[in-house]
Specification:
The complex is a heterodimer.
Chain A (H helix, E strand, L loop, with lengths): L14 E5 L3 H12 L3 E5 L14 E2 L4 E2 H14 L3 E4 L2 E9 L2 E8 L14 H5 L3 E3 L8 E3 L1 E2 L11 E2 L6 H5 L6 H9 L3 H11 L3 H7 L3 H5 L11 H17 L21 E5 L3 H12 L3 E5 L8 H4 L8 H13 L3 E3 L7 H6 L4 E4 L5 E2 L12 E3 H9 L4 H7 L3 E5 L3 H12 L4 E5 L11 H9 L3 E3 L2 E9 L2 E16 L2 E6 L5 E4 L2 E4 L3 E2 L11 E2 L3 E2 L13 E3 L2 H4 L4 H19 L18 H11 L14 H4 L12 H8 L13 H5 L12 E7 L1 E4 L4 E2 L16 E3 H8 L20 E8 L15 H15 L4 E6 L9 H12 L2 E4 L4 E4 L6 E8 L5 E8 L1 E6 L1 E2 L2 H9 L25 E3 L9 H18 L26 E6 L11 H9 L4 E7 L5 H14 L3 E6 L2 H14 L7 E5 L1 H5 L6 H21 L7 E3 ...
Parallel strand pairs in A: 1-2, 1-31, 2-5, 12-13, 12-15, 13-14, 15-29, 17-25, 18-19, 18-25, 19-20, 31-42, 33-40, 34-35, 34-40, 35-36, 43-44, 43-45, 45-46, 48-49, 48-54, 49-50, 54-65, 56-63, 57-58, 57-63, 58-59
Antiparallel strand pairs in A: 3-4, 6-7, 7-30, 8-9, 10-11, 16-26, 21-22, 22-23, 22-24, 27-28, 32-41, 37-38, 38-39, 47-66, 51-52, 52-53, 55-64, 60-61, 61-62, 67-70, 68-69
Helix pairs in contact in A: 1-2, 1-28, 1-40, 5-6, 5-9, 5-22, 6-9, 7-9, 9-22, 10-19, 14-16, 24-25, 25-26, 28-34, 28-40, 29-33, 30-31, 33-43, 34-35, 34-40, 36-37, 37-38
Chain B lengths: L9 E6 L3 H10 L8 E6 L7 H10 L3 E6 L10 H17 L8 E5 L5 H18 L3 H7 L1
Parallel strand pairs in B: 1-2, 1-3, 3-4
Classes of the chains: A alpha/beta, B alpha/beta.
């Protein structure tokens, strides 16, 4: 595989894509960005941070995970050359290494990142609760959420699966799920607003809609749909009744201010039905002057004169019409428009024709002109306009027959009953089953005594002397309509006359279109022809919609037409193309399984639908009062809770109403972006296994069985129980807690034949922390082997057992059973007596924690597949042996747990290792795509009086809702040196930044105070702003009046306001004293020194050189290779010497690497970036070399053991010697006993040497491979075959390697027998003495630190561990750094580790060094110490106290100095200084003193 | 000043990395606590100069809280240990001047312990209320 490309050809692209933003992805991104590459960090979730963000503490230091991680989060979030792409995934990569094009799918977040301030008001408003996955589903969050408080980006996101089926089915896309969710929450007024968003006629549609939403409802698949229509009615009834009773201020429902005529355009709407009025309202809200012309004396169209009032009371229609008019729509009643095109000439800029279809139709049969033959539309209109006296003669006491089978026919028939008809019948073409009216409508009619005669054709109106006597008809077989004509056969011999005195035709209506004056194109001469989408006619400016276009249809369709017309007319009047390009969000389609699951969790009684009740037929048929009654509040909420919430986000828009930053955009759609990059890193991490993978432990069935990640959240102070350890079932404090190890790990029965590597340690950590939280807790851990193989891990386990009293039981739990009432758990396991007899145990615990294993997420595996990255049998992208972080595809690297389960430091190391390889590959493109911030020159303010500008933030309502912000501003103006003060809605918003810049210039400000939120997140932003305005960024101070005031004193706004004033006063007091801070820059010597020529040193040197920087490699011995020279068997059976000799060859032949063997570093002076080392060569000559960075790779050694007769008995050899024998020997030993943990894990070496288990197993396998009949026995304490090494362990057992466990208290005994060695061992747990005769006793000897480390540590001023290994800066997050910058660590000098781990760590150290060397110059951090030479007495206390070696007192110097580049700004020297000669910039004594004075004043 | 209306003023010196962040988390979690505390942010509890504490005492602060990272968690390796030693010494000195050492609290509160921060402010405010005003206030008032 190529290591560097493009040296001769085209330059590679200097950008890298990192997929997955957990700790590994973050580390790789930072390394690469620092090393001069542009980084795209792609994350599928809304925030970076990954699994580590969920952890409470980290082992083995019990550091708070969030504390150590959040500075990294902020660093990644603010890095100029890292672009974070959240809610995104890579769907494909084309091209070749160095020149890829990555296709990234950007999923909508529905929240604008640049506008969201993370204030959280939206989540308070959101009615949709969701299980909080971040908290292990133990608590709730909202559908709009920020995954965790410290999340970066600090912005909310909406969890939306798409448009819910109900909304999708509705012609006006009414947000049904939205208002249903609000009803469930009892928020009826909010629900009303949501409904009104799309529908100006909710009380109408709550009564007479055809509710396609309900037809589409997902519940249909398992039950009856949610009664959405009834809920809509309930909401309007509730709001209006509250208003009528004076309990709700009518102003509360006025969400839209009355618009003035801002557009200066006039629109005429012809027809005041649902279509016309909807259009009028929409246009009015857009600022147009709208006039509605209505021919009738009432408004509402068919809602008013078509639907009888027992179904839809008139006053409701009127009320909703009035609300529209109240917004400034002008209505002219009794104003029929005769000439629509003429309106355009009268000065209207556009016209919407929505005259409906009010023309009745009669069949062309004899007798239809008789006076007793009526038309339903006219009849119903007369009824509705109270002109019933004229009708009495036809109806009262008469037999009335209605011809038609639709809703209108039913309305006519039921109205006739109510007007006093003696008998009413209905007859129609359709069969009873196919009648267009709803079945329930027909049944209602029949209940009222209306007789139905279906399947008939009408021949004639029978008469007697000009008086109707009935209708002559024949029965038919009706097959439907063909081309608008009925298709049927008559059934002979069925002719009859249905007797009636009055006949009402209800067979359809048609529009009256004379007003179009023949200028508008028509369809079939009856309906105006319009574009279906835009409703535009052929005449520009004339639009038509509703029944006039479609013929009689449902009200909701007319409303939809009104909306569509308004949109088109608006576009028309703005001169835009009429068709808009808005993409519709995708429709949610739930699987049947999902529907069932959601139904069960939504409501226990989801199958019970709450139907509206109606008045009894006998009562209702006598009057026009409303037939259907609404739901009670209780019924409504119960009904609403049946909703499955298909879209998750209900799209109720409450967040939009609440967000003052206008950050929410529900119309965002998915986009695909193509990004050119040179290399790709996969760091998608892993996820915990589902606890139900071992059903016998009862996870999911028993409330008190939790997974380790859930327990982690339970421990967290910011978790679901605020850090109180309590049982999910009853919140009781558990006393006895059991951990069960290896759930989904080391378990081939569930295809998880690998060790998850971290569970032993995290379980121990959780046990310790739990006991720290609550000293009454007794922790028990059930395990197979304790795998504490990392640095400091064994000591941690020992402490847990000895000091904390954690009980470890080596036994696998067979089952867990819940005790019914107490919900305690009975754990079944087996122990052994001192005699080795097994005893089944059953022990009761209060809580059981399953230590679940880790696995790659299915999404990660899918991504790997899509990118052509091979994964192993478990789904991990396992790297090839000795090539950590590499994949099968060139230019693609993998790091972190996705390549093998591993803990945080190994992840960080591997991430850096992957970054190093990408950096080497793309070395030619370094620095080509990165950018640097550009600022105007800094203004010199040293001669100016302080002029402080104060900007006080409302933070929407977060601060402004509690603190009286204007009052604080007025107060600020009175403070000394304050030259300007103002308030902002959001001080952090983009426009306010510009404003601050302008105010600085306008008022000559030279100090700025912002009173808003926490400086931890926002100080850099404001500092950048004032820098843009030409001020030094450190002339800035923040007053934290949100997190530390408004949010914590919400109940006492007055006190909070006073406190805010004081906090502002304190900030101003400090600001007045602030001085500019000049950050020093330092030159860098762009080469590295690597100390140690073993595998780590060689690899580090090679990697640094490949990344383009010269290296000096210093090795004490004559030969390069270190310990690796003695290893002859690889875990795959191959000989690693081939790898070593190739590596040595490459290093020796690389012109950028100067190799010094038999040489030593005598002296090092200087500091980061500028070291000069003296090298002593073998001939005694000395050489001084300059370099910017140091890599310590001084290695370790095998302990010179004296145990088990080593060195005394022939045949007792070390694993290394065995390997040499296997390599060179002619005869193979047939009987071999291996003894583990020799001089390891004992009092002198209280740590695990990590490599010996694997070494023994691989050598055992090698013997078995060569001679299957041989006998190989391994005597061990714990087999620590972590990760995929577990496969080797399994293979060894399958191949007959015998494993015998022993207790360190009774170690094996080795004796010289007559011809062989005799080994006796007391086997565990059977307590049986076993005896083996053996040709070889092979000792797995531990690793110890180089004795020379101490001298080197003194030379470099680096700390060592108690065991003599070098101590890194931070065991978790800075595993290859030292606290002092510029020095890096790798290989056995750090701790015992395997070959591939050493290679990874060496490359990690390499890129850390390169990140430094790649810089043109170094910049000191701003907050550092400074010295006033006049005050300094050169006492040297500061030098003593500085943890970074950043204070220096040269012999004979008059004052101590600060090495700015080393100073980290802790302030220790400042406090130590007795003369106040040392000061901490940005926190100077006078500045803090002024704050104290101000605080107490 | 009568006991019932006495509202103590507590000056807090909090380290940037742990306790100040913990105070922020208390806010993010909307935990409510008494408003008597005035926070001054420093980079490290090891940067809390005893003179600041003395100055606050002498100026009349009724209570002083120093907050740092838990032992072993210091962002600057061992600044919190330095703080611990200094505060012990300082209390010893102040005892002899009549200033009750119970007015000075040193607490380890991590970035994730918003609850612990709020609890500490609650406890401390109650405790100082019970003690009454800083005696120096009256001495200087003479």
């Amino acid at each position: 595989m190529t290591d560097t490309i493009g040296e001769n050809n085209k330059k590679p692209i200097g950008a890298v894509m990192v997929i997955g933003a957990g700790i590994g992805g973050m580390q790789a991104s930072l390394d690469l960005a620092e090393a001069g590459f542009k980084v795209y960090l792609v994350e599928s979730s809304p925030a970076i941070g990954g699994t580590m963000a969920q952890l409470d503490k980290t082992f083995p230091t019990n550091d708070c995970a969030m504390c150590i991680m959040s500075p990294k989060l902020v660093e990644v979030g603010r890095h100029l050359n890292i672009e974070i792409l959240t809610t995104s995934e890579v769907i494909g990569v084309e091209g070749e290494a160095g020149d890829f094009r990555a296709k990234v799918k950007r999923k909508p977040r529905y929240v604008k990142l640049d506008a969201c301030t993370g204030c959280g008001d939206c989540a308070t408003a959101c009615p949709v609760p969701r299980l909080d996955l971040f908290n292990g589903d133990l608590s709730l969050r909202k559908a709009i959420y920020k995954p965790y408080p410290q999340a970066i980006p600090n912005a909310y996101a909406i969890e939306k699966q798409g448009m819910s089926p109900c909304r999708n089915a509705c012609p006006i896309n009414q947000r049904a799920q939205g208002y249903v969710a609000l009803v469930r929450e009892g928020r009826y007024l909010d629900a009303y607003r949501t409904i009104k968003e799309d529908n100006p006629f909710p009380s109408v549609c709550g009564r007479v809609c055809n509710h396609r939403c309900e037809d589409a409802c997902s519940l249909n698949q398992v039950s009856e749909p949610v009664n959405i229509m009834a809920l809509k009615r309930f909401v309007t009834d509730w709001v209006w009744s509250k208003m009528d009773h004076g309990e709700l201020d009518p102003q509360a429902v006025k969400w839209h201010e009355v618009q003035t005529d801002t557009r200066h355009k006039n629109v005429a709407v012809v027809g005041a039905g649902p279509a016309g009025l909807t259009c009028a309202l929409d246009l009015r809200r857009l600022g147009y002057a709208v006039t509605v012309f209505e021919a009738l004396p009432v408004a509402g169209g068919m809602m008013r004169v078509g639907v009888p009032q027992y179904r839809l009371p008139y006053e409701l229609v009127q009320r909703e019409v009035d609300e529209i008019l109240a917004e400034g729509v002008e209505l002219r009643l009794n104003s029929p428009v005769k000439d629509v095109p003429g309106l355009l000439e009268q000065g209207y800029d556009a016209v919407f024709v929505a005259v409906g279809a009010h023309g009745g139709i009669k069949l062309p049969i004899p007798g239809v002109d008789l006076p007793q033959v009526l038309v339903a539309t006219d009849f119903l209109r007369q009824v509705s306009l109270s002109a019933t006296e004229d009708l009495d003669q036809f109806i009262k006491g008469k037999r009335v027959l209605v011809l038609g089978g639709g809703n209108v026919a039913i309305d006519a028939a039921m109205s006739a009953i109510r007007l006093g008809a003696s008998w009413v019948g209905m007859s129609c073409l359709e069969s009873r089953e196919t009648m267009p009216a709803h079945d329930w409508e027909i049944r209602d009619a029949q209940d009222e005594g209306i007789e139905v005669f279906p399947s008939r054709t009408f021949k004639e109106i029978a008469q007697d002397n000009g008086k109707v006597t009935g209708v002559r008809c024949t029965q038919i077989n009706f097959r439907g309509f063909v081309d608008g004509r009925p298709d049927f056969d008559e059934i002979t011999g069925t002719e009859e006359i249905i007797a009636a005195d009055t006949v009402i035709f209800a067979i359809g209506q048609r529009p009256q279109v004379e007003c179009l004056q023949g200028k508008v194109e028509m369809v079939r001469g009856r309906f105006p022809h319009v574009d279906e989408e835009t409703l535009a006619t052929n005449v520009p400016g004339i639009f038509a919609g509703g029944d006039v276009v479609t013929g009689t249809s449902f009200i909701v369709n007319a409303i939809a037409a009104g909306h569509r017309a308004a949109t088109s007319i608006d576009r028309f009047l703005q001169g835009k193309p009429l068709k808009s390009e808005l993409q519709r969000p995708p429709l949610v389609q739930l699987s049947e399984l999902e529907i069932q699951q959601r139904a069960i969790t939504a409501a226990q009684d989801y199958h019970i639908r709450h139907d509206t009740k109606q008045r009894p037929a006998a009562e209702r048929k006598h009057d026009f009062a409303e037939v259907y009654l609404g739901l009670s509040e209780e019924e409504a909420r119960a009904e609403a809770s049946r909703c499955l919430g298909c879209g998750i986000c209900s799209e109720c828009l409450q967040c939009v109403y609440t967000c003052r930053a206008n950050a929410i955009d529900h119309n965002q759609v998915e986009t695909i972006e193509e990004i050119p990059v040179g290399a790709i890193l996969l760091t998608p991490g892993v996820e915990p296994m589902d606890g139900s993978i071992r059903p016998e432990y009862g996870y999911g069935r028993y409330a008190n069985v939790v997974t380790s990640i859930q327990f982690e959240r339970m421990l967290s102070a910011s978790g679901p129980f605020s850090g109180v350890v309590q049982r999910p079932s009853d919140a009781a404090h558990p006393r006895k807690i059991a951990w069960i190890q290896c759930v989904g790990s080391r378990d081939i029965s569930c295809d998880q034949g690998y060790c998850s590597s971290v569970c032993c340690m995290y379980a121990t950590k959780e046990a310790i922390i739990a006991m720290e939280h609550d000293s009454n807790i007794q922790a028990t851990i059930f395990y197979m082997d304790i795998r504490a193989f990392g640095k400091g891990f064994d000591a941690y386990i020992t402490r847990a057992e000895k000091e904390n009293g954690v009980r470890y039981i080596r036994s696998m739990v067979s089952s867990v059973k819940e005790v019914p009432r107490s919900k305690n758990l009975r754990v079944n396991y087996v122990t052994f007596t001192a005699e080795g007899k097994p005893i089944p145990q059953e022990e009761e615990f209060d809580l059981v924690v399953l230590s679940v294993g880790l696995k790659p997420s299915s999404a990660a595996i899918e991504t790997a597949h899509r990118l052509g990255i091979r994964v192993n049998e478990f789904g991990f992208a396992e790297a090839p042996l000795y090539h950590p972080a590499q994949t099968n595809r060139e230019g693609f690297y993998v790091a972190g747990a996705f390549s093998e389960p591993k803990d945080i430091p190994e992840t960080v190391i591997e991430a850096s290792c992957a970054a190093a390889q990408a950096s080497a590959l793309l070395a030619g493109g370094r620095g080509t795509l990165t950018r640097q911030a550009v600022y105007p020159p800094e203004r010199d303010v040293s001669q100016e009086e302080p002029r402080v500008g104060v900007f006080v933030c409302h933070c929407g309502i977060n601060i402004g809702g509690v603190v009286d912000v204007p009052d604080v501003v007025e107060f600020a103006k009175t403070l000394p040196n304050v030259a300007y003060a103002e308030r902002n809605l959001y001080t952090c918003s983009q426009d306010t930044q510009q404003k601050i810049t302008a105010k600085i210039r306008e008022h000559g400000l030279n100090r700025v105070v912002v009173a808003s939120c926490t400086p931890r997140t926002h100080e850099p932003l404001f500092q950048d702003t004032i820098r843009q305005a030409g001020l030094n960024p450190h002339l800035f101070e923040l007053a934290n009046i949100r997190e530390q005031d408004a949010w914590v004193h919400r109940a006492t706004p007055q006190i909070a306001t006073e406190k805010a004033k004081e906090l502002v006063a304190m900030a101003v007091a400090k600001a007045r004293r602030l001085k500019p801070i000049k950050r020093g820059t330092f030159e860098i010597s762009h080469q590295a020194l690597v100390i140690g020529g073993g595998l780590a040193g060689l690899t580090a040197a090679q990697s640094i050189a490949q990344q383009g920087f010269p290296v000096y490699l210093v090795e004490r011995e004559a030969e390069l290779g270190g310990n690796l020279r003695h290893i002859f068997v690889g875990v795959d059976g191959s000989n690693p010497q081939a790898v070593l000799s190739e590596l040595i060859h490459q290093v020796r032949s690389d012109p950028r690497i100067s190799v010094f063997t038999e040489s030593e570093v005598l002296d090092i002076h200087g500091y980061v970036g500028q070291y000069v080392s003296t090298i002593c060569h073998k001939d005694g000559s000395r050489e001084e070399i300059p370099h910017g960075a140091i890599v310590v790779a001084s290695g370790a050694r095998e302990i010179p053991t004296r145990l088990y007769g080593y060195g005394e008995m022939a045949g007792v050899i070390s694993q290394r010697e065995l390997e040499a024998e296997l390599m060179n020997g002619t005869t193979l030993p047939q009987r071999v006993v291996m003894i583990q943990c020799v001089d390891s894990r004992d009092d002198d070496h209280p740590y695990c040497s990590r490599i010996c288990c694997t070494q023994a197993i691989k050598n055992a396998l090698e013997i078995k491979r060569r001679s299957p009949q041989s006998e190989v026995v391994i005597l061990y304490r714990d087999i620590r075959s972590y990760g995929f090494r577990e496969r080797l362990y399994q293979e060894a057992r399958q191949n007959g390697v015998i494993f015998v466990q022993f207790d360190p208290q009774t170690p094996p005994k080795v004796k010289q027998g007559t011809s062989t060695l005799e080994v006796e061992v007391l086997s565990q747990p059977e307590q049986e003495w076993l005896k083996f005769e053996s040709e070889r006793v092979v000792l797995s000897i531990g690793v110890e630190a180089q004795p020379g480390n101490e001298a080197l540590s003194q030379l470099l001023k680096l700390p060592l561990t108690a065991e003599g290994f070098f101590l890194e800066a931070h065991v978790k997050l800075r595993p290859v750094d030292f606290a002092a910058d510029g020095v890096y660590l790798c290989g056995l000098a750090h701790s015992p580790r395997a070959m591939d781990e050493t290679i990874a760590q060496a490359k990690a150290a390499a890129i850390r060094a390169v990140a430094l060397l790649a810089k043109k110059e170094l910049t000191a951090t701003p907050i550092i110490a400074s010295v006033n030479p006049r005050l300094c007495s050169a006492c040297g206390l500061c030098v003593e106290v500085c943890p970074y070696g950043a204070r220096r007192l040269e012999a004979g110097a008059a004052y101590a100095e600060v090495v700015a580049v080393l100073c980290q700004g802790c302030g220790a020297c400042v406090v130590a200084c007795p003369n106040k000669a040392s000061q901490q910039l940005g926190f100077e004594f006078l500045q803090i003193a002024e704050m104290i004075d101000s605080a107490i004043a | 000043m009568s006991e019932t209306t006495f509202e103590p003023k507590i000056i807090a010196f909090l380290c940037n990395w742990c306790t100040y962040t913990g105070a922020d988390l208390a806010g993010t979690s909307r935990l409510q606590y008494p408003p008597n505390i005035r926070i001054i942010r420093l980079m490290c509890s090891g940067a809390v100069d005893p003179i600041y504490v003395l100055k606050a005492d002498l100026s009349g602060a009724d209570g002083i809280l120093i907050g740092g990272c838990h032992p072993g968690d210091c962002h600057y390796q061992e600044g919190n240990y330095k703080a611990r030693r200094r505060i012990v010494a300082l209390k010893e000195i102040l005892k002899n001047t009549g200033f009750e050492e119970e007015r000075i609290w040193l607490r380890w509160i991590s970035a994730s312990e918003g609850t612990r921060f709020a609890d500490t402010v609650r406890e401390m405010t109650a405790a100082i209320k019970a003690m009454g005003p800083n005696p120096y206030k009256q001495i200087w008032a003479v």
